[in-house]
Every structure is written in C-alpha cells, then in structure tokens.
Amino acid sequence: MKVQETRELTEKERLEKIADLGQEYFNLKFQLATGKIENPGRLKFIRRDIARLKTIVKEAELAGSMKEVVDKA
C-alpha cells in the first residue's frame, strides 16, 4: 500500500486496515511456525504497511492536537 493511498483513507478505514493487516500478520506467523507458509517475504511487507498506517494515524492525532493549541493562542 502506497503512502498516498493511505493518506486518502478516513480515520476509521485506517484503523480497520490496521486490524485486518494485524490478523493477516498473525496468520502468516502461525503458518511460519508450522512450516506451511508459501510466501515468507509477505511478512516483511505487512509489517511495513502496519507501521506506515500507524505513523499516519499518529501524525493525524498530533496535527489535531497542535491545531487545538494554535487555536487557543
């Protein structure tokens, strides 16, 4: 998932996407442990997508809190 695509999502969609990717990551880790994983390289991409989404969520939270501080001043 590209950064631009991620930024276009709503807050709710981002959180849902994080939950979905987290579940997929768990399933792939389970497959890895049992030795039945087909594409172990996918783990790396899912982990990065989760981190990218969490970063954008945090940026939005900070931007919102900074906006409140500026509005009060």
Describe what this molecule looks like in 3D.
By secondary structure, the protein is mainly α. 84% of the residues lie in helices and 0% in strands. The chain has helices spanning 3-8, 11-34, 42-72. The longest helix has 31 residues, at 42-72.
Question: Could you list some keywords that capture this structure?
Answer:
elongated, Helix Hairpins, 84% helix, 73 residues, mainly alpha
Percent helix, as a range, is: over 70%
Q: How many helical stretches? A: 3
Proportion in β-strands: under 5%
User: pLDDT average, as an integer?
Assistant: 91
Q: Report the top-level CATH class.
A: Mainly Alpha
Oligomer, anyone? single chain
Q: What is the 3D shape?
A: elongated
Compute the separation of the termini in Å.
Answer: 38 Å
Label the structural class. Answer: mainly alpha
Tell me the major beta sheet: none
Residue windows where pLDDT falls under 50 for at least 5 positions:
none
CATH topology: Helix Hairpins
Secondary-structure element series:
HHH
Q: What count of domains describes the coordinates? A: 1
CATH structural architecture = Orthogonal Bundle
For the secondary structure, the number of strands is: 0
